[in-house]
Design a protein that fits this description.
The protein is an alpha/beta fold and about 290 residues long. It has two domains: about 140 residues, Rossmann fold (3-Layer(aba) Sandwich), CATH 3.40.50.10860; about 140 residues, Rossmann fold (3-Layer(aba) Sandwich). The chain is about 35% helix and about 20% strand. The chain contains ten helices and twelve strands. Strands 2-1-3-5-6-4 form a six-stranded mixed sheet. α1 crosses α10. About 50% of the residues are buried. It comes from Gordonia alkanivorans NBRC 16433.
């Protein structure tokens, strides 16, 4: 997928996601409809109130009717009434077991960030891989054979490695995490190079992607960052911090002369994929499918 030169990055990414994951085209309904939303995760309440989610739904002529916030995955599937499920940390890896089917990227990664309930069951969707690839392509435009270091071993890292390989087949990809076994499993699964946190500076990455939860909240920044940020950041390098806020890590990278992107564009694209998916799910329900 190439979005360089395209005028609407979000729309192009959504179209690619729906075509490849659900085998459908994006069709906006002219009829205003409401959607019941499930928000699953430790920060799910905040995600469900996102202005970006509201805007994405409005773009599909949708609005939220009710919101069910929970941190117990099993409860969400007992007599569900929701149509759209927002899946956040730490449940992206386990919630797929509750779905009736997984889309290709969800099956490849084992990671589900969105649930869509139709008349015939629940579909587990991975939209993050498409969102990250599209946002990353904007950020990495013009870089030849970038050396990309992904920090973290959680669900978002799976999506990041899949999306980056899809959008940048010429890139050299590295992954590092505080859990050596998890890091090695990721490296083997996606065919990338595993690096110990203490050795990450030796990679001399042109791009650093923070896929950890460090920086997600003020509280998360109270503990030390698990990687030598001072050695990773240098003039001309890029930090792509997937957290959707102005974090201390971003401030440090800017001071070191790095170009910086937060997770905002990626989140916009994720929500737009979710909204288009919700519209599809409502259409499927209307047809009894």
């Amino acid at each position: 997928m190439s979005i360089i030169g395209k005028t609407d990055v979000v729309a192009e990414a959504v179209a690619a996601c729906l075509e490849n994951e659900l085998s459908v085209a994006v069709v906006k309904s002219n009829v205003a409809r409401t959607v019941d939303v499930l928000a699953l995760g430790t920060t799910a309440g905040r995600a469900a109130k996102s202005q970006m989610l509201d805007a994405a739904l409005a773009g599909q002529n949708l609005s939220i009717a009710t919101t069910d916030v929970t941190t117990v995955p099993g409860e969400a599937f007992v007599e569900p009434t929701w149509v759209l499920g927002l899946v956040l940390s730490p449940f992206k890896a386990e919630v797929g077991a509750h779905a009736n089917r997984l889309t290709p990227s969800a099956a490849r990664t084992g990671i589900v960030d969105t649930l869509l309930r139709t008349s015939t069951g629940v579909v587990g969707l991975n939209s993050n891989s498409w969102a990250l690839a599209a946002a990353g392509e904007v950020l990495l435009r013009g870089l030849d054979r970038p050396r990309i270091l992904v920090l973290g071993t959680g669900g978002t890292t799976h999506s990041a490695l899949l999306g980056l390989a899809r959008a940048h087949p010429d890139a050299e990809l590295f992954v590092s995490g505080r859990r050596p076994e998890a890091t090695c499993r990721l490296a083997e699964r996606y065919g990338v190079t595993a690096v110990a946190p203490a050795d990450t500076a030796e990679v001399e990455p042109s791009v650093v992607i923070n896929a950890t939860t460090w920086g997600e909240t003020d509280e998360s920044e109270a503990s030390p960052f698990g990687f030598p940020a001072g050695e990773l950041f240098a003039p001309g390098r890029i930090l792509f911090d997937l957290n959707n806020r102005h974090s201390a890590l971003q401030i440090q990278a800017l001071a070191a002369g790095c170009a910086v992107m937060s997770g905002t564009l990626m989140q916009r694209i994720t929500h737009a994929c979710r909204a288009a998916g919700a519209a599809w799910a409502l259409d499927q329900q209307a047809k009894g499918e």
